[in-house]
Model the fold of this input.
Amino acid sequence: MSTEKHTTHRPKTRYKAFYILSVLALAALFCVFFGIIYTLIITPPSEPQTMMRMVYLIMVGGFFILAAQALLILKRVMAVMDCDATTAGEMAERLEQLAVLDDLTKAYNRGKFESVATRELANVRRYEHQLTGIMFDVDNFKSINEDHGYSTGDRLLANLAHFVNGKLRNNDYLFRWRGGKFIILAPHTDSDKAVMVAEKLRQIVSHKLFGGKIRMSISLGVAQAVAEDTTDSFMQRLQAALASAKNSGKNRVVSDSEDTSLS
Done:
């Protein structure tokens, strides 16, 4: 933090120092110029040409100093404009992120899910890319809220989202659906690999203490997109797989492509 402040203020200090020096130099030239003119008027010399040459040199020097001042001011204005543009860009980026992130968990929200799912499903149809979704839900989340309080439940969801997001690839997406439900979209991943990822997440979550005191489990449903899928049909298959995992005893992974489950 300290280094950033020094780096930010150093150009300002340099511009100010140069500008003060240029003003002092201009004032000194003005004093010399005034002195020469005064001398020419009060006690004209026998050879005024030499004095006039000095006057011209002082005028040229003053012109260069004024030009240097203008250049310094221009550079400073450009630097401020560039800084303002950078700040505006950063603010626009932050506002864009806030528009697509869930307030509580900082995972992507449902609006972002719609746009990403639509795009990735189009890639499945056009380019035969693979796309698999994993929908998971915190088991007995209502009981956690009742036993530990809703604020604790909120922190648990935020910690869970952060934890799961850290286990995903850079090109995977984590969305909060509602309550304790989340969706992972994994482009270029088939159902078998997604089941392995889901099972790994299930095991890690079930062995972790959240908040240092709460142990919980998640149920997961896996579905691979096909060319005929719309966002709605894809979601229906994800929800059906998750419901099957819940109805099979919870704390397990169920794929819609198989009748088997992992637990």
User: Anything to note?
Assistant: The two ends are 48 Å apart (CA to CA).
